[in-house]
C-alpha cells in the first residue's frame, strides 16, 4: 500500500513538473542558452580531471596515457616556488577580500544619500564604467599612467620640481600589492555596489519614517536601519568570496608582472601557467587546478559553518 502511495506521489510530482514547464515554456527557452553554456564550459570539462592522475600524453589521449597516481600532487608540493606562490596568493587575495570588501557597501551608502538625482546617475555611471573594461585594457592604462613619462611622474615633477627623479613603480616588487589592490578596487567597486544598492532599495520606507518620528537623523538611520538590513546580503557575498582566497586573478597578476619582479610576485595561477601549460605539462596544471578547487570548497564550507553559528545566515 505504501509503495502504491509512493508511486502516486512520484507520478504527481512528475506531472506537476511537466505542467510547470509547459506553463512557463518561454522562460525555459530563455534559460536554455545559459544552461547549455554552463554545461559545456563548466560541467563537460570536469572529465579532464582524470589528467591529474596521469602522465598525460596528447597523442595517446586519456585511454593510452600512463597512470601515475598522486605523483603530480607530490610534485606540486615539492616545487621550489610553491610556498612563495601560496604565501603571495593568500596575501594578495586576502588584502582584496578583507580591505576591499567594505568599499562597495560604503559607496552604496554614499550613493543612497545623494539627493540630486541627475548628479547621482552621472556619478554611478562613471563608477560602473571600469568594470566593462577587460583586464588587458586596465593593465595597459595602469602602465601608461605610471610610465616614466606618464601622468604619475608628471604630477610628481609638477609638485616637487624638475630635480626629482622619475621612477617606474612596476620595477619594485614592494609596490605590487598596492597596484593589485587599487587596480581591483578601481575596476570593480562601482559595479559591486549595485548589489548593495538593490538591497537598500528593498528596505521598507516605513522603517525610515518611524525612525524620523523617533527623532533619528541620517547617520542613526544608516546605523540602525540600513546597515542591519544589509547584513544578510553582506554575509552571503563574504562567504562566497572566501572561496577566492587561494585563487588570484590570473589576467591581472600576469599582466602586471614583469621580468624584474616576476620571481618575487609569483602566485599559484601564474605558477600553474609557467610550470604547467607553458611547457605542456597538462597533468601538473590539472593537479594544481584540482587542488585549488578542493581547498576553495573547504574554505567556503568552514566559513559558511562559522557564519551560520554566529549569525544564523548561511548559503546552505
From TrEMBL:
<keyword id="KW-0813">Transport</keyword>
<dbReference type="InterPro" id="IPR050809">
    <property type="entry name" value="UgpAE/MalFG_permease"/>
</dbReference>
<feature type="transmembrane region" description="Helical">
    <location>
        <begin position="26"/>
        <end position="44"/>
    </location>
</feature>
<feature type="transmembrane region" description="Helical">
    <location>
        <begin position="282"/>
        <end position="303"/>
    </location>
</feature>
<feature type="transmembrane region" description="Helical">
    <location>
        <begin position="132"/>
        <end position="152"/>
    </location>
</feature>
<dbReference type="GO" id="GO:0055085">
    <property type="term" value="P:transmembrane transport"/>
</dbReference>
<dbReference type="GO" id="GO:0005886">
    <property type="term" value="C:plasma membrane"/>
</dbReference>
<protein>
    <submittedName>
        <fullName>Sugar ABC transporter permease</fullName>
    </submittedName>
</protein>
<comment type="similarity">
    <text>Belongs to the binding-protein-dependent transport system permease family.</text>
</comment>
<keyword id="KW-0812">Transmembrane</keyword>
<dbReference type="InterPro" id="IPR035906">
    <property type="entry name" value="MetI-like_sf"/>
</dbReference>
<feature type="transmembrane region" description="Helical">
    <location>
        <begin position="189"/>
        <end position="210"/>
    </location>
</feature>
<keyword id="KW-1133">Transmembrane helix</keyword>
<feature type="domain" description="ABC transmembrane type-1">
    <location>
        <begin position="86"/>
        <end position="303"/>
    </location>
</feature>
<feature type="transmembrane region" description="Helical">
    <location>
        <begin position="222"/>
        <end position="240"/>
    </location>
</feature>
<keyword id="KW-1003">Cell membrane</keyword>
<feature type="transmembrane region" description="Helical">
    <location>
        <begin position="90"/>
        <end position="111"/>
    </location>
</feature>
<keyword id="KW-0472">Membrane</keyword>
<dbReference type="Pfam" id="PF00528">
    <property type="entry name" value="BPD_transp_1"/>
</dbReference>
<dbReference type="InterPro" id="IPR000515">
    <property type="entry name" value="MetI-like"/>
</dbReference>
Amino acid at each position: 500500500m505504501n509503495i502504491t502511495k509512493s508511486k502516486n506521489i512520484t507520478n504527481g510530482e512528475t506531472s506537476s513538473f511537466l505542467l510547470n514547464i509547459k506553463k512557463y515554456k518561454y522562460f525555459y527557452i530563455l534559460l536554455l542558452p545559459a544552461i547549455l553554456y554552463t554545461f559545456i564550459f563548466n560541467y563537460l570539462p570536469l572529465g579532464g580531471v582524470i589528467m591529474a592522475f596521469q602522465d598525460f600524453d596528447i597523442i595517446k589521449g586519456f585511454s593510452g596515457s600512463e597512470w601515475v597516481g598522486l605523483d603530480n600532487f607530490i610534485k606540486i608540493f615539492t616545487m621550489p616556488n610553491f610556498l612563495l606562490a601560496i604565501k603571495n596568493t593568500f596575501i594578495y587575495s586576502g588584502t582584496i577580500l578583507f580591505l576591499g570588501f567594505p568599499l562597495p557597501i560604503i559607496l552604496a551608502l554614499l550613493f543612497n544619500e545623494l539627493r540630486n538625482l541627475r548628479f547621482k546617475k552621472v556619478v554611478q555611471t562613471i563608477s560602473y564604467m571600469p568594470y566593462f573594461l577587460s583586464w588587458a585594457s586596465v593593465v595597459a592604462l595602469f602602465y601608461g599612467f605610471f610610465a616614466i613619462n606618464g601622468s604619475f611622474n608628471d604630477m610628481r615633477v609638477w609638485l616637487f620640481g624638475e630635480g626629482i627623479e622619475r621612477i617606474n613603480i612596476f620595477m619594485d616588487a614592494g609596490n605590487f600589492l598596492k597596484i593589485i589592490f587599487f587596480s581591483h578596487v578601481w575596476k570593480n567597486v562601482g559595479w559591486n555596489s549595485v548589489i548593495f544598492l538593490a538591497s537598500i532599495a528593498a528596505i521598507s520606507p516605513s522603517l525610515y519614517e518611524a525612525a524620523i518620528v523617533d527623532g533619528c537623523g541620517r547617520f542613526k538611520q544608516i546605523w540602525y536601519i540600513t546597515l542591519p538590513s544589509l547584513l544578510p546580503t553582506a554575509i552571503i557575498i563574504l562567504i562566497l568570496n572566501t572561496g577566492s582566497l587561494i585563487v588570484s586573478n590570473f589576467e591581472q597578476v600576469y599582466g602586471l608582472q614583469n621580468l624584474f619582479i616576476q620571481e618575487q610576485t609569483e602566485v599559484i595561477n601564474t605558477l600553474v601557467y609557467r610550470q604547467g601549460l607553458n611547457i605542456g605539462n597538462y597533468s601538473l596544471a590539472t593537479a594544481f587546478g584540482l587542488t585549488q578547487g578542493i581547498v576553495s570548497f573547504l574554505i567556503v564550507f568552514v566559513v559558511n559553518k562559522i557564519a551560520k553559528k554566529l549569525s544564523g545566515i548561511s548559503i546552505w
